[in-house]
Design brief:
The chain is mostly beta strands and 182 residues long. Helix content is 15%, strand content 44%. The strands form 3 sheets. It has a 4-stranded mixed sheet with strand order 7-4-9-8. It is elongated. The mean pLDDT is 93.
């Protein structure tokens, strides 16, 4: 299989900005001469993390928090941005402490995910966390997050819940299950 060469960038410009994103317009020319204009959300480039925490007595720990885009409370695994100068594994442990009040003795990177790579450049590293001990750090959430405990042997029952449908959390659950079996 031959490696494809990506299109040539003719021009790029930031067309809009918010506190979290920039919309970037890309003028591209493909190897066959076709030209197209693409738009993408350019993130901070710092990356993000998601953590699947499992207690010693066999419970998954999830958080329920408000999601502005869906205008409802969603259930998912602890997650957040990597701070400038911070390693992803350290960000994972910090997010655990901010969102669920635990630190992890062991963090194992399971995978790296992208969401809608045709439109977003954001990458998220997924970690499994074990050896949890109580430790709380102040986070940036506007209200306390609800901690939800689910028995590990009932993990896939989460897929039947209306509030557990965020693709990254669903993928993290499957990644954890595969890693846990191995």
């Amino acid at each position: 299989m031959t490696k494809r060469v990506g299109p040539k960038l003719l021009h790029s410009a930031i067309t809009a900005r918010s506190r979290y994103f920039q919309v970037e317009e890309l003028h591209l020319e493909f190897a066959n001469g076709e030209q197209r204009v693409y738009e993408r959300l350019a993130g901070s480039g710092r990356g993000a993390v998601m953590v699947v925490p499992v207690t010693d007595d066999g419970y998954l720990l999830l958080v329920k928090e408000y999601a502005a885009a869906t205008e409802r409370y969603e259930l998912g695994f602890p997650k957040g941005l990597v701070d400038p100068g911070e390693l992803p594994i350290d960000a994972a442990n910090r997010e655990l402490q901010e969102e669920i009040g635990f630190s992890a003795e062991q963090l194992v990177e399971l995978s790296e995910l992208s969401v809608a790579p045709g439109f977003m450049s954001a990458q998220m590293k997924v970690f499994a966390a074990s050896g949890l001990t109580a430790s709380r750090l102040k986070g940036d959430e506007p209200e306390p997050l609800e901690l939800v405990r689910v028995p590990l042997d009932q993990a896939f029952s989460l897929l039947q819940r209306d509030d557990f449908n965020e693709a990254r959390s669903v993928a993290a659950l499957f990644l954890y299950e595969q890693w846990h079996r191995e």
